């Protein structure tokens, strides 16, 4: 190829620029020169300069557009909540976005309408931590397309990054959910004597915290009603798996005894002892896991293990002349609990080969005198007494006394949570409990362990007036005048429990005593509060009982009936001369029907 008579090198990969030649005055060819070529070098230089200038102009234009498109950290045409952030540095974009949020402050702080199930509530953004994360939003806005044309000509709207406090939001929505939700019924297998009975799981109807947070974050700035659905959460163990455990383990476990062989002799573990020690415990997800509770097994075997074991004895406290006195502990020699639990569980499903070989090892007391002295149990900090009718001979009174004996002397360390169900286990005939009236489906019926609710109420009040943390309790459906209203508790194994936490820096001793008509629970520790008192609101929403006529028979129990009402109780705790806590307890009692065993009289 030749340009203006110059021979160029062979074509390469460089682009070719097409330039149209123009004539300038004085650039005409010299007729005296041969070959028609210009006589001087000036014209050639001018043309090359012209070509170079055109190329430079084109490149300058492209370069200028690129510089414009890539100016700032945020691509041009980018907006957030109507604020133009494009072409700005991150710092400038953040300032502009904060200014826009200030302009919208009233709207952003307005309550959000949230529908939870069938209920609608108003949620204040500040109460649940709803906010726009400015830095995260600017970072999202800066993440633009790489192509310069998109940056030069494009436009886009970036959603703000919204944050929320999941725990505070869940608490607020939980209050709105109210009675619409239901607790998960945990699976269980319990023994009545040696008969296993399944407790089938039922799903909870509740909130899904991550889903709730996403819905509220997405809907907050829309100004529209935000819908948060209730979801079912199923226990990890199904009804079919409960039945399988009954068939494959619980029933075979108590079908025959097990022989426990040691170097010091053998012991026969009866089906009754197996039933008392075989536990089916569900974790927080509802997963049911069988295990052998060796502590319960030892209790069930009683003196049988005395021939081969020497049980260690924890140091303890007894109340002598109004003061706690240390009872020394003692070392022993026992079966390896972990190995025994594992090996015994392994043979319970078998029909044959039901022999377990166990090894003895030294056993130190869990609570030594030195550890006990560190707990700081030195004085009585509360006591509570309730009265019961019928004397000590009635089955109901016997159940109250049995529960008191089971709990007496229990020490709860600082930070530990005491569970009454966990401490006593199932309260059945084998555990010394008898049939007595219990409330089932709104009426009194005979049931094993009836009356333990009175001990539960007494224990609850003793811990309440000691200022200990209430973890779980449930008042009765009906009001009984022998209990203080609102601050009382029922119990039913395994569904309803009473639990308290020792939230003090000292240990706690539960001391129980009884007479022919009273049950008393005292809490011993180190006193840290001036006083713990109760203030009541007036009763409200009073409802009258109705009369119900029942089929006469041995299972029919008459009741006089009682009014229903709602009331609040406030636990007021003072320390160093001032109120440090005012805790509200509220309950609504249903009117207890007047039950009459007999036919309804004619109108």
From TrEMBL:
Q: Does the keyword Transmembrane apply?
A: yes
InterPro entries in the record, alphabetically?
A: Glycopeptide_resist_protein (IPR052913), Vancomycin_resist_VanW (IPR007391), YoaR-like_PG-bd (IPR022029)
In this entry, which stretches build a coiled coil? none
* Record-linked Pfam families: PG_binding_4, VanW
List the transmembrane segments: 48-71
Please report the stretch or stretches of sequence annotated as the YoaR-like putative peptidoglycan binding domain. Answer: 249-356
The reply to whether Transmembrane helix figures as a keyword in the UniProt entry is yes
Q: Which UniProt keywords apply?
A: Membrane, Transmembrane, Transmembrane helix
Looking up PANTHER family in the UniProt record yields: EXPORTED PROTEIN (PTHR35788:SF1), EXPORTED PROTEIN-RELATED (PTHR35788)
Q: What is this protein called?
A: Vanomycin resistance protein VanB
The species this protein belongs to is: Micromonospora globispora
